[in-house]
TrEMBL record:
Pathway per the UniProt entry: Cell wall biogenesis; cell wall polysaccharide biosynthesis
Native species: Rhizocola hellebori
UniProt record similarity statement: Belongs to the glycosyltransferase 2 family.
Protein name stated in the entry: Glycosyl hydrolase
Pfam family, one: Glycos_transf_2
Entry-linked InterPro entries: Glyco_trans_2-like (IPR001173), Nucleotide-diphossugar_trans (IPR029044)
Top-level lineage group: Bacteria
Gene Ontology terms, MF aspect: glycosyltransferase activity; hydrolase activity
Domain Glycosyltransferase 2-like: 15-177
Length: 350
């Protein structure tokens, strides 16, 4: 939609959908649901990262849908950045290509953004196989840089918005001014951790990230160990921590960070993806100059002391993925006790 076509009475929001090899029915549902949203004036920027040619072309026949084709797979981070360049709304929504918004969801999230100290409003992400259960009520972020969905498989019992350290990139809304202030996602993440990065940078400039329980999005959530998954997860976790954690925090948390690296090495050997782990280190080293430059950028924009924003982090590992990799519960309990005690000791020194 052109700026001339906006309604003068409704909040104007541009929804960015990045598609890559998306099953046609899900992509169609995702885009159609956005265009039928209530109490907002919405246009959709559909970024075709590959594998959705016919469906994307057909969907773009709707004048409210603008099709962007970068010509290569730019990943979720790069795709969102490419799509946001065409945003004309006062608000930007990032919605997954396999995520279906309820008619009132965008309007409810924008309503929450009217609170001056809120920078990002996140939807209550629901599992497609049972929308009564959560996919995420906001993502948790560990002091050592791990991140996972909060409340996976639990019922939504909240009655009011709650603060969250991170938010799933498949269902977030912010003002375009906030997006532009932070400069968007870091392209080098490609896919994974870009949403955690943006959320913590929001906290670091004195704004909150909230998850809104009565703004549901149904999401086809599948954790798949596809090629490159472990490589990007490990590489991005290292980039995430080394760019956002202060030198003092890195020093104080060094025992835990080293211990985590050793654990991930052992796990990668056991599960057969040690090569991905090595390649993650190589990539970080080869791109160290751009990572250092990125660190300077995010440190300059920070206005809140580390000891304040790092209160949003958790020292407790309660990701359900621990069960998938068969970590014994007594081991998890011991690790949580040690990490909790250590973090309570050093966090006031950060």
């Amino acid at each position: 939609m052109s700026s001339e076509g906006w309604s003068a009475d409704l909040p104007r929001v541009t929804a960015i959908v990045v598609a890559y090899n998306t099953p046609e029915p899900w992509l169609r549902h995702a885009v159609t649901a956005l265009t039928t949203s209530e109490k907002v004036d919405v246009d959709v920027v559909l970024v075709d990262n590959g594998g959705v040619d016919d469906a994307a072309t057909e969907l773009s026949r709707d004048p409210r849908v603008k099709l962007v084709r970068p010509g290569r797979n730019t990943g979720f981070a790069g795709g969102c950045n490419a799509g946001a360049e065409f945003a004309t709304g006062d608000y930007i929504a990032f919605i997954g290509d396999d995520a279906v918004v309820e008619p009132s969801t965008l309007a409810r999230l924008i309503e929450e953004l009217q609170t001056p100290d809120i920078g990002i409003a996140a939807a209550s992400m629901r599992l497609s196989e049972n929308p009564e259960l959560l996919n995420s009520r906001g993502n948790q972020i560990h002091v050592l840089g791990l991140s996972w969905v909060g409340g996976l498989g639990e019922p939504e019992t909240r009655t009011s918005p709650s603060n969250t350290a991170g938010a799933m990139g498949a269902g977030i809304v912010m003002s375009r001014a906030h997006w532009e202030r932070l400069g968007g996602f870091f392209d080098h993440y490609f896919a994974g951790y870009e949403d955690a990065d943006l959320a913590l940078r929001t906290w670091r400039i004195g704004l909150r990230v909230v998850s809104v329980p009565d703004a549901p999005i149904v999401h086809r959530y599948v954790f798949q160990a596809h090629p490159g998954k472990y490589f990007r997860t490990e590489r991005n976790r290292i980039i995430f921590v080394t760019t956002l954690w202060s030198p003092r925090a890195l020093f104080l948390l060094a025992p835990g960070l080293i211990g985590l690296e050793l654990c991930m090495i052992a796990l990668s050997v056991k599960q057969g993806w040690f090569g991905d782990k090595v390649n993650a280190w190589k990539d970080v080293w080869q791109n160290r100059q751009s990572i250092i430059a990125r660190r300077r950028v995010v440190r300059r924009e920070q206005t809140v002391p580390d000891r304040v924003w790092m209160r949003m982090l958790t020292a407790r590992l309660d990701t359900p993925l621990l069960k998938e990799i068969r970590v014994p519960q007594p081991v998890v309990g011991t690790l949580n006790a040690i990490a909790g005690a250590y973090w309570s000791l050093v966090r006031r020194l950060v």
